[in-house]
Hints:
By secondary structure, the protein is α/β, with parallel strands linked by helices.
Amino acid sequence: xxxxxxxxxxxxxxxxxxxxxxxxxxxxxxxxxxxxxxxxxxxxxxxxxxxxxxxxxxxxxxxxxxxxxxxxxxxxxxxxxxxxxxxxxxxxxxxxxxxxxxxxxxxxxxxxxxxxxxxxxxxxxxxxxxxxxxxxxxxxxxxxxxxxxxxx
Length: 152
C-alpha cells in the first residue's frame, strides 16, 4: 500500500509539473502563484528525493541551509534543483563523490549553491549553459528517431 501511494503521489507531481511547464513554454505564462516556503523544509524534501540515487552511487550528499522564507513556485523550483543535482551526479566521481547544497540569506534574497567534486566544465562551455537542451559532454547525447503511427 505504501508503494502504491508513493507511485500515486509521484504521478500527481509529474502531472502538475507537466501542466506548469506547458504553461511556461507554450503559453509563455510568467505569473505563477508564488508561495512562501521554509528553505530548510524545501531542501529537506530535495535531499529526501535525491538521497537514494546518491547513496546508490556512493556520493556523499549533505545539505546545509540557513533559515529563510523563500518566495517560490515550489514545483518548478524543485524541478530546477533536481535537474541540477542530476547533472551534477553525472559529473561526480562515484568513488569519492560529494555534492553539497548550501543556502544563506543575502541582502537581495537568498543564495543557493550546489558544489561538487566533479570534473567541471571547460571555460568555453560556460557561456552556453543556459541554452535549452545544451550538453557540454556530447558523449551522453542521445539521437532519437521517432516514428508516429496512427492507428484507426
